[in-house]
Amino acid sequence: MAFKLSRDVDMPRAWHRELPRLPALTALRAFEAAARHESFSRAATELFVTHGAVSHQVRALEEELGLPLFERHGKRVKLTPSGRVYAERVRDAMLQIADATRVLQAGARDKRLTISTMPSFAARWLTPRIGSFIERHPEFDVELMSSNTLVDFAREEVDVALRMGSGDYPGLYVERLIDDVFFPVCSPDFNGGNLPRAPADMQGLPLLRGEGDPWKPWFEAAGLDWPEPRKGLFMEDSSLLLQAAAAGQGIALIRSSLAYNDLLAGRVVRLFDVTIPCPWLLYFVCAPAMLQTPKVQAFREWLMPEMEAFRAVLAQWR
Questions:
Q1: Has residue 1 got a pLDDT over 80?
Q2: Spatial distance between the Cα atoms of 79 and 89, rounded to a whole number of angstroms
Q3: Quick count: other Cβ atoms within 10 Å of Cβ 38?
Q4: CA within 13 Å, CB half, 220
Q5: What is the pTM of this model?
Q6: Calpha distance 193→189 (Å, rounded)
Q7: Which H helix or E strand runs over 207?
Q8: Can you tell me the distance from the alpha carbon of 54 to that of 40, in angstroms, rounded to the nearest whole number?
Q9: pLDDT at 205 > cutoff 80
Q10: Can you give the residue ranges of the HTH lysR-type domain (predicted)?
Q11: How far are the Cα atoms of 61, 100, 107, 185, 249 from residue 188, in angstroms, in the given order?
Q12: Cβ atoms within 10 A of the Cβ of 50, count?
């Protein structure tokens, strides 16, 4: 339903008055910054414009007002008495606008749920499932951020992080979701369908390498005294590593939580029964103050049953 504002609405009388003509906001911003620094150069640096642009804006403002705001002494500038009074009033007005904007955005922020997780987990697990949360909670706008970088909750507008790591995140609420194991996978058509039957049969075959996924611990678990591979295709993203294996480019050492869809679909097959524990676990992480907010509570209540069902699926690959 459209809402139309009319004169019948009981609003403050001042709202019915037309605003007088005001100077351009760009000129006022340039003036305020220049007044605060008493320097056109530093104001230009703050506003990401040139010295000349600040000078031009201030000069245009002075012409519009009909009086000088700065005394100019070569490259140095100093506020006039009138300029100093005007600068204080302009700054107060801008701070009020900034405060009103923050209040307005805070209301919208309550309806936006921002989740940060690794690209591989976002692509393989969260994105295919998040639709059911959105259907259950249409009141929230969901934003997924995929990054391998840890979240700084004090500086970033992120509500929840789903992270593989040690769980040692001081000052944050941390809840363990799943643990994981590594095992080798490859395409069923790899090497012309002549797949290795025992770990030692991988000798001479292309082994795909990933960031933080070393082969040597698995070699040791399989009874092989082999060094870490130094040649072959290397990829930082585990999801891309799995795609390369599915495309028949080699054997990849992959986490079960990442490979399970491809295993079920037959795009890759697991080699051998040897697994090693993943040194990182998946955690639900947020700032303690955010834990009790309706949006984070709603997401957690949706996530936990999903994770319980997922753990049951992963059990068959241990």
A1: no
A2: 14
A3: 16
A4: 8
A5: 0.60
A6: 4
A7: none
A8: 6
A9: yes
A10: 23-80
A11: 73, 60, 53, 9, 11
A12: 13
